[in-house]
Amino acid sequence: MKKNWIAKVAALMLALTLITSCFVGSTFAKYVTKAQGEDNARVAKWGILLTAAGTPLFESEYETDDTNGYEGLSVKSDNGDNVVAPGTHKDGFTGTITGTPEVAVRYELKIMKDSFKDIVLPAGEGYTDYTYFYEKDGVWDYHDTFDLDKDYAPLKWDVGVSNSNGTSYLLSALLEAHPGAANAGLTPVGASATDAIAIMSNTTYQNILKGILMDMVSGAQNVQFTDTDEYFAISMDFEPGCEMDYTFTLEWTWSFENNDDVTWCNDKADTYIGNVAAGVIEDAACITDIELNVIATATQID
C-alpha cells in the first residue's frame, strides 16, 4: 500500500516537472502587432488639346469691300503666290487650347526671330512719289518726293481672345486707351509686328498687358514675357484643375485710306512698296515679303 502511495506521488511530481518545463521553455502565446494598409493611384490627367484651324493667314486672292457695285476680286496673284495689298484683311487663323488637367500647366506662345520678316520701307528721305504724275517745265514725270521719319510697316497685327462663355476681346482695343500707346505704334487695327514686339518688351506695357491677360483668360497667373536672340514669348500658368477653353485669333490689316481718320497708313509709301514688288523700281532696302512663325506649347510645370 505504501509503495502504491509513493508511486502516485512520484507520478504527480513527474507531471508537475513536465508542466513546469513547458512554462520555462516557452509561453503559451506571443505578442503580435500587425498593421496592414492598401493604396492605389492612377496617372494624373493631362488631356490638353491644342489646335490650329481656320482659313490660311494669307491668300492668293481677296474679295472686294467696295460698296459702289463692283463685285469682282479686289486682289488676285498672277502666279498663285499668297499676297497682301492695301485694303486687305484676314482674321481666319485661330488656335485653341482646351482641357482640365490635374497638373499645373504653362502655356506659351513664341514668335521665332530667325524666320521673322516684315514688309518694311525704311525711314529715309527723297523717295519718289509715284502717286502723282504731272507735267513740269515741259516734262511729264513723277517729280515729287516724300520722306519717312520712321520705318513704315503697313501690315498691322492684332490678337483676339475668346472663351466658351462667349466673351471676346481684341488686344488693340484694350491697349488703345492707355497713354502713349499711339506713340508706341499701336493703331485701332493693331500694330506692326516690329512695334508689337517693342510694345510687349517695354516694362510699362508689360505690366498693363499682364493685368489685361489675367482678366481676359480666367485662371491665368504668372504672366511672363521673354525676349531672347532666338524668340519673343508670352507665357501664362494655370493651376491643376483649371478648366481651359480658350481661342486665340491672329489677324492682320493693311489699311486702305490715307485721310485724317486713318493716319497710320501712307498712300505714297504703299505705292512705292507695290512698285518695288512689281519690279518697276529697284530698292534693296525695301522688304516686300512677310514671314511669321508662331509656336504654341503647353507644358507641365514640375
What is the helix content? 10-25%
Tell how many strands the DSSP assignment holds: 15
| Number of H- or I-type helical stretches | 5
Low-confidence stretches: 5-28, 32-39
Rg value: 39 Å
Beta-strand content estimate: 25-35%
Largest beta sheet: strand ordering? 1-4-14-10-11
Structural class, judged by helices and strands? alpha+beta
Question: pLDDT average, as an integer?
Answer: 77
The domain tally reads: 1
Q: What series of H and E elements makes up the topology?
A: HEEEEEEEEEEEHHHEEEHE
Q: Judging from the principal axes of the Cα atoms, what is the shape?
A: elongated
Q: Assembly type of the shown chains?
A: single chain
Largest sheet: 5 strands, antiparallel
Distance between the termini: 94 Å
Your description of this structure?
With 302 residues, the chain is α+β, with helices and mostly antiparallel strands. It has five helices and 15 strands. It has one domain. 21% of the residues lie in helices and 30% in strands. It is elongated. The termini are far apart. The model is unreliable at 5-28 and 32-39 (pLDDT under 50).
